[in-house]
Amino acid sequence: MRLSQNTITGGNDVIDLLSYNFTIKKAGKKLTIKKYDKLNTYNFTIKSIRPVTKGKSDKMKENFLKSLARARQNVFDIISCNVNNIPDYFGNKQMPKFITLTFKDNVTDSKFANLEFTNFNKRLSYYLYGEKKNVLKYICIPEFQKRGAIHYHVLYFNLPYIEFENLGHVWGNGFVFVESVKDNIEDYAKYVAKYMNKENSKGEENFDIYLSKGMLNQKRYFTSRGLKRPIVYKLLVEHETYEMIVAYLKDFNIDNYTYENEFIGKVEQLDYEIIDRDVLKTLFETIKELVKDLLKTYNRPIKLKRSDFYPTNEVSPWQI
User: CB–CB of 220/228 below 8 Å?
Assistant: First the structure.
């Protein structure tokens, strides 16, 4: 395998650029591989010499929609990592549950609403387990309407069964809706992500709402602490190594497509679904060797945990 290191000099500074042409991302059982025609670099930024006012741009709407698309992908990845993967407080497996929380009053202050949501999770944890701190794991999409009302669409990963009336009583701020979703990761992700579209559930433009509230730079979702996150590795590999990995994973391939632009060139994306422990172990070993080469070349710490790739209760036979 060949590694590349470029440098940029300026004044007395020398900046090392780490180059890559291959990325691999694992989110739950979904694996995504991207192969780039052009070399990409990271660990390098250039500060703008012009003052930029946050949220001000001739392309505000275009940037907002791009940000929305990235947020949807992040939500999809987080859900893939955590659905059916987090036990409840007592260690029992729970089906994910999708809940919508509304305010009976026209609450428009997002700080107040967020505090109410945080306190609700603490109250719910106390009601279920007698714990004063929140022990529930969730991802939440706030939805705003032109009249100002705020709703919360929440996917709970480890919430046990609770009577509907009791859930509404613990919330205490308005209506509660418990919605049914098929037991499929893609269905959970699509159901949640539909609240992060160009329009809200009433058909109103989200861009106009966020702009009027001065919230264009606000995150589109938030999560509880301790959720599993997708892992991504950026590597520089020879074509033969790439072909070897693709050939090894061919039986698990679910989708392929190609796209390109002037900045990153042509990109091949391959998607897989893998739960086979032996396959994941072999893939882990391959990436481990690639990462070791990076460690030698760049002398920088790169975390790589076997548990990120496949579950095991064994004592690790290697250390990186």
Answer: no
